[in-house]
Amino acid sequence: MSTVAASTQFQSAEAPRTFKAAIVMGVFALVVFVAFGVFGKPDNVTFQWSKPDDVIHIPDFIVGSSLVGLAIGAILILIAAIVAVNASRRRRNPQWISLIFGFFAIIALLAWLAAGNAVPFAFILGNAIVLAVPIALGAMGGIMSERVGVVNIAIEGQLLTGAFLAAVVGSLTDSLLLGLVAAMVGAALLSMVLAAFAIKYLVDQIIVGVVLNVLVLGVTNFLYSQWLANDGERSNFPGTFDITPIPFLSDIPIIGPALFENRLTTYLAFIIIPVLWFFLFKTKLGLRARAVGEHPLAADTVGINVARTRFWWVTLGGVVAGLGGAALTIGSVGAFGRGMSGGQGFIALAVVILGRWHPFYAAAAALLFGFSIILRVWANQVSPGIPTDFITMVPYLVTLIAVVGFVGRVRAPAADGQPYIKG
């Protein structure tokens, strides 16, 4: 009897025999091979790895655009075949195989768009990272909340609060650091409201999050039209943090300017993401937080204060999201605009799910959306005949393909969104 049970358990642990990811990859690979390769543009494309005045200069690589489509299309077909073989043998595909597939697909898209022009890798990567920072930090705040069982729909409001306070306080005090602190404190206070209603008064967490988003949007729009629009030079002109290159590291080709030549808000994001991963998965504090999000009754039984743990993790998540809001103003634009978060909080919520509530995976997903924003701007310059709406649609289409074909069914923390009533 025990042998049969063990055999059943082993079979259930095997990967299901599903060819969904292989089919999606195969179709996408054929599209690349045919559209970008067979019927691609014959013009040459120049891949620029570094600028001529860089300390370490890598020569440009010139190749035919259609040849890139053919070569990468063949590579993608091979990857799809490997995925199909693994599915037929009930082997789980490693997480990195979809990342490699996406990387090559992006290279093919860039080569097709830039036929007859150049692809400045450092420029595209650097701007994609900067534009991804608010989304990534909002996602980190969402992960911190949902890992302890509180659904955080209010990320949009937290980003908007951080952006508004960073601009206003930074302008009035003439101190960007004070503006940064005010952004984090303001978003933390908003998170405390969410935590109090969700944990203490057991109000539906989604409803509270939606109400907070609407409230913050209305308040900031009112203050902008009645105050900032009439006194913008004194109250809404904080400027931005200086770009600070890190010596030696910023001289590395491609990744040097993208990673090590940034503003303070971007550097803080680079620190927060691995630190959050370490605390969640390598410390007792993170183990307790995950226990509260998975099985609060069991956590309470061993002496963990469920309400207190949830409250402080949600609050700290607001601190991180507020930093993401500050990255929109004093870390990028230099002033606050009406509704300037532009739905990035909801994108961050999708990134949390796409990243499986894991800081590194969520950061990679946020980078995809940052890439989509800069791609729209850059593609309009090198290929003005292509509709910008089509270019904007491509990364989101890739995201849907990734969710359906590669990510599959995701499992949120078991107690996510469920109030806990102490017996």
UniProtKB/TrEMBL annotation:
InterPro entries to which the protein is assigned, alphabetical: ABC_transp_permease (IPR001851)
Pfam families associated with the record: BPD_transp_2 (PF02653)
Keywords for the protein's UniProt record, in alphabetical order: Cell membrane, Membrane, Transmembrane, Transmembrane helix
Subcellular location: Cell membrane
Signal sequence range: none
MF annotations from Gene Ontology: transmembrane transporter activity
GO cellular component, one term: plasma membrane
Chain ranges passing through the membrane: 21-41, 61-84, 96-115, 121-143, 150-170, 176-199, 206-224, 264-281, 311-330, 360-378, 390-408
Membrane topology: Multi-pass membrane protein
UniProt key word Signal: no
UniProt-listed PANTHER family: GUANOSINE ABC TRANSPORTER PERMEASE PROTEIN NUPQ (PTHR43370:SF1), SUGAR ABC TRANSPORTER INTEGRAL MEMBRANE PROTEIN-RELATED (PTHR43370)
Protein name: Unannotated protein
